[in-house]
Amino acid sequence: MKMRWFWGVLFSWCLILNQAMAAEQAKTLPIEMGFSAGLGFDSNVSSNPMQINDESAQLKYGTGDFFYEHNANIGYTLPVTSDFGVKAQYFVNQNFHFRLTRFDILSHNISLIPKLRLFNNSGELVGLCNFNYLDIGSDKYRTFFTFIPTYFQMLTEKLMLETSLGYERRYYYAPIQTCHDDASAHNYTAGIGVYYFTNPERTAYLQMRFGYEGNAAFGNNWDYQAFRLLTAAAFPIVQKLRARLYLDLTYQWFSANWFDAHKSANPIYVATHPPFPKRQDEIVAAGAQFFYDIRKDLALQANMDVVRDSSNIFWYAYDRYVFSLFLNYHY
Q1: pLDDT tier, 262 (very low <50, low <70, confident <90, very high otherwise)
Q2: For the chain, which domains are there?
Q3: Which of 81, 78, 163 is nearest to 125 (CA)?
Q4: I need a surface site. Which of 9, 29, 81, 287 has the fewest CB within 10 A?
């Protein structure tokens, strides 16, 4: 454990120095760089990452832990024409828990994002092509391939419309007990939202977004549909202090009766109990982020997030609170 911490912290500060030197050498290039590192507390580590199927990972109590986390990203934008460009980006995220090390995460994201301006720059079409690989506790856990085209249209100087369609191919590699627990899926999304900007820089806004998700999983326990409503507000508090508040409501309904491998293997239980119902989840997530600008390229970020999943299946009903403080550098 101590060695993992040592290499994690050493990796973080090597990235800071490397990016600082690279930034000085790349001031004339269309390059974006960023790094953040911080500490936090997660009251329910077992619910992050989601979709771990063994019961020992779904305990509701005694799973809180402190963590250290760092992130780094680099992006390069190739301006093909005045109205069309392509951005390539790499993002890595890693965390280390003080006690529950089996939930340590290492995530890699590689993105290709073409952007096309339309209608005299009042509209923009953005196509996100993303690859994500996630390790949990040094074990291969999942890979996602994502394509989400999104269109933004300024309706007035302050009002912007957002529409999107998405497809994601999900592969999970965690051991499963039955075919019902296979979370690998074809995932489809659609969304529509509006932004109301309250300043010319468009950094302060009100947001509302409605979305639909259909998850065609190979295992019946993960085949679901969902509706989601997101509301958010970003605004300045004082000259160097900014805030963002959000409320995210999700309703999920699953297509098949929940299958419990342990209880279904017991013929006495099967004979004396009715089958499990179809799973339904009502998820409420709310949070606040505060940013304090130390200088133009350096900021402190404080996060507070609360999640409650009211599921009718015992193992998936949980409460979670996450508090964290990060130092962010960007170029």
Answers
A1: low
A2: 2-330 (2.40.160.40)
A3: 163
A4: 81
